[in-house]
Amino acid sequence: MHEASLARAIIASVSEALDERHIDPRRVRRIHLAVGELAQVDVESLEFAFGFAVEESSLRTSSLVIASVPAVLTCTQCGSRNLYSAEFFFTCPLCQGACVVEAGKEFDVVGLDLDDAELDDDSGHFVRSACRAVEGVVT
Question: Which positions in this protein are listed as binding Zn(2+) (predicted)?
Fold first, then answer.
């Protein structure tokens, strides 16, 4: 199951980005991931694998939020943009020309929700809590 490897890669990428920015990983509440329709990722298996992998990491307080990105194809002959359909595969439904994938192969961490709170250094618990979103943390 390559989803287990993907889950570990997400955790490693986010951890590295947090470390570079000196952000405590315990502040991460949600990791937002964009997964394209053509990315060949089983989302349920990824969520399952992430649940196990995150427990062994410094991001154990975080959850994964996955947004599906539809596959968009552009015809190389007539320029029309269409959503992917198994019926047309990679041919244009208007002129039967060849299409190229414009969107739908994504597998990107697109943002993090951080607990914008102060940590009590003695207990490691948050003194106050308010969530904020951080976009573009991992490129």
Answer: 75, 78, 92, 95
With 50 as the cut, is the pLDDT of residue 129 above it?
no
Do the annotations mark residue 99 as ligand-binding?
A: no
Tell whether the model's pLDDT for residue 112 goes beyond 50.
yes
pLDDT at residue 21 above 60?
yes
Is 131 labeled as ligand-binding? Answer: no
- From the CB of residue 57, how many other CB atoms can be counted at a distance below 10 Å? 16
Please report the pLDDT score of residue 126 as a whole number.
43
| Residue 122 predicted with pLDDT over 70 | no
CATH of region 2-135, choose from 3.30.450.40, 2.170.150.20, 3.20.20.80, 3.30.2320.80:
3.30.2320.80
Length of the chain: 139
Residue 45, CA distances (Å) to 3, 7, 67, 80, 121 in order:
6, 10, 15, 34, 36
Enter the DSSP assignment of 119: B
HEC sequence for 67-106: EEECCEEEECCCCCEEECECCCECECCCCCCEEEEEECCC
Asked whether residue 95 is marked as a ligand-binding residue, the answer is yes
